[in-house]
Amino acid sequence: MIKIAVLGYGTIGSGVAEVLDTNREIITERTGQEIAIKYILDLRDFPGDLHEDIIVHDFSVIAEDPEVRIVVEAMGGVEPAYTFARTALLAGKHFVTSNKALIADKGAELMAVAKEKNVSCLFGASVGGGIPIIRPINTCLTADIIEEISGILNGTTNYMLTKMSEEGSEFDDVLKDAQQRGYAEADPTADIEGFDACRKIAILTSLASGRRVDFQDIHTEGITKITATDIKYAKALGRSIKLLGSSYKKDDSYLVMVAPYMVESTHPLYNVNGVFNAIFVKGNMLGDAMFYGSGAGKLPTASAVVADIIDIAKNPDRHITLEWSAEKLELTDFREYVSRYFVRACTDQKAVEAAFGSVEYVRIADVDDELAFITPQMDGFAYENALSELSGVRQSIRIK
Predict the structure, then answer these.
(1) pTM for the full model?
(2) Catalytic choice (100, 106, 200, 400)
(3) How confident is the model at residue 317 (pLDDT cuts 50, 70, 90)?
(4) Which residues lie below 8 Å from residue 338, measured CB to CB, with a gap of 6+?
(5) Which end of the chain has fewer beta carbons closer than 10 Å to its terminal beta carbon, N or C?
């Protein structure tokens, strides 16, 4: 029997317990031994709950119990999760988490401690919820040089952009709807400003490169400036607007950013709608592949957490290697990315062509007080210079 402790009995923690309870027989069969929860750490009591007798309030009970082989963190945030994680690893316990903030900030350090202590630190649910993306990058794609990762990594923003597209609604209205449905937090900043997606693409790029990516170095734009008018233009162009976390291999580094894109209808990410996530991966040998599914939610995320627990239970006496060194990867300037851009501006045709040269104009009904156009292919440096020569700019979106 493998005994584990779960830190936090909220949405994900209770989901882990539910998955282990519901699928106990098949998990035992696949693992070769039973996985049992010995402790659940939480500040609260849960009278009447199936697991009320194993609730504890002091982490030291878990850290000092030699029977606990795996510590599963489901609290969120960097602290006290980091302190608990490090303490558990130093005590020779395996560690599993779904906490993207923790892994984006402290992942390389925790994995170094895990290697030193010959235990594992796994975080398959930290990106994409129930989508299996961490494990394929770490195992299935190790023969490839990963040339691109582009993903819809946040279900909240994807739901909002989908609803704006389907209903022609404005940003503020769909945000209220997402909050009422429980898809967006009372403070939605991490989602709508792109910070959540930023941490996730940092984790994926760290695994792809084998070096530490500082999420604070990643250029990040959110969706707060996207309007119903932008959606109308996208439809007229046969495109959809998606918030993407993207990473492109550039020589010995990666160019990484989070930003809204107008995605063409032939791209695999075009039809990913609602709260679903999808991650497009391009390998130099594999070519194109896409991973699609529920990017969040209690049971999909808990299922991915339990998959990591099972992986450790099958390998209890060894360190499962993840290629992610403490050496920092110096990212390529995001402005080296070459793209076309969609621009809306209150200006005249002469000024547009003086700044950008030959462009493709876009016109839609009911909008006659501006010029909308698509630029030629250009890098970000040239684009910024050209845009600075244009007055009355209302919108600017990259095209993919």
Answers:
(1) 0.93
(2) 200
(3) very high
(4) 377, 378, 379
(5) N
